[in-house]
């Protein structure tokens, strides 16, 4: 997702959004790499953390789902000023609230279980790469009204499907029950939101963007 801000500016923004990361940045040289992907570039250009695939699976899931959630938050934050649909604004607010809460929880678990081990963002986890493909914040942030609604629904639907795929794949691999519960919630909540967005797209007669 390409945003006109430089990647360096993004570190500060993410540190504010997810304080646990900013507080523990000194633990790993790879830490800034994980944060820096969250803003200021195309989501499709995100890269895995060095040696991510060698990390414990739960560690990979925490970091990868957190960065995936953060990109959904960024998209949802555009809805209030660009959409004229109260229903879409309400759902976007829920996405922001739900996923920021889960990001905070994921960061807390990371500090409990993997403090000092650096980042383990793995773009090869099922659902991750395809959910970020062709995600342009430049185009989304430039749109308004019906054009914005259509683009947002298409992008967020693809993004949610990726999260569901990642969570479903993880269910048989995760060791921590807390993460399994979070994955179940991701599957249930985001499937419902996918269905709702599909219904709105049909009802509002929105063309794919």
Describe this structure in words.
With 209 residues, the protein is mainly α. It has a single domain (7-203), classed as Ferritin, CATH 1.20.1260. The chain is built from ten helices and no strands. The longest helix is centred in the middle third of the chain and has 29 residues, at 86-114. The radius of gyration is 16 Å and the shape is elongated. Mean pLDDT is 84; it is low at 1-41.
> Could you give a short account of the major beta sheet?
none
Low-pLDDT stretches: 1-41
State the name of the first-level CATH class. Answer: Mainly Alpha
Beta content comes to under 5%
According to DSSP, the number of beta strands is 0
Can you count the helices?
10
Q: How confident is the prediction overall: mean pLDDT?
A: 84
As a percent range, the share of helical residues equals: 55-70%
Straight-line N-to-C gap: 15 Å
Principal-axis shape equals elongated
What structural class do you assign from the helix and strand content?
mainly alpha
Q: Briefly note the CATH topology name.
A: Ferritin
Q: How do the SSEs run, as a string of H and E?
A: HHHHHHHHHH
CATH superfamily: Ferritin, core subunit, four-helix bundle
Q: What is the C-alpha radius of gyration, as a whole number of Å? A: 16 Å
What is the second-level CATH architecture? Up-down Bundle
């Amino acid at each position: 997702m390409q945003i006109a801000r430089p990647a360096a500016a993004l570190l500060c923004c993410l540190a504010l959004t997810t304080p646990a990361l900013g507080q523990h940045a000194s633990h790993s040289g790879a830490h800034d790499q994980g944060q820096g992907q969250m803003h200021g570039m195309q989501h499709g250009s995100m890269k895995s953390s060095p040696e991510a695939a060698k990390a414990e699976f739960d560690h990979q899931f925490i970091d990868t789902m957190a960065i995936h959630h953060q990109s959904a938050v960024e998209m949802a934050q555009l809805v209030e000023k660009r959409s004229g649909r109260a229903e879409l604004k309400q759902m976007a607010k829920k996405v922001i609230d739900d996923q920021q809460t889960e990001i905070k929880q994921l960061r807390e678990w990371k500090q409990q279980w993997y403090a000092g081990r650096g980042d383990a963002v793995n773009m090869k986890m099922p659902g991750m790469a395809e959910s970020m493909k062709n995600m342009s914040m430049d185009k989304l942030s430039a749109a308004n009204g019906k054009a914005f609604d259509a683009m947002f629904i298409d992008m967020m639907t693809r993004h949610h499907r990726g999260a569901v795929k990642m969570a479903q794949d993880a269910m048989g691999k995760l060791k921590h029950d807390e993460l399994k519960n979070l994955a179940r919630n991701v599957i249930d909540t985001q499937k419902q939101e996918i269905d709702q967005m599909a219904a709105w797209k049909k009802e509002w007669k929105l063309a794919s963007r």
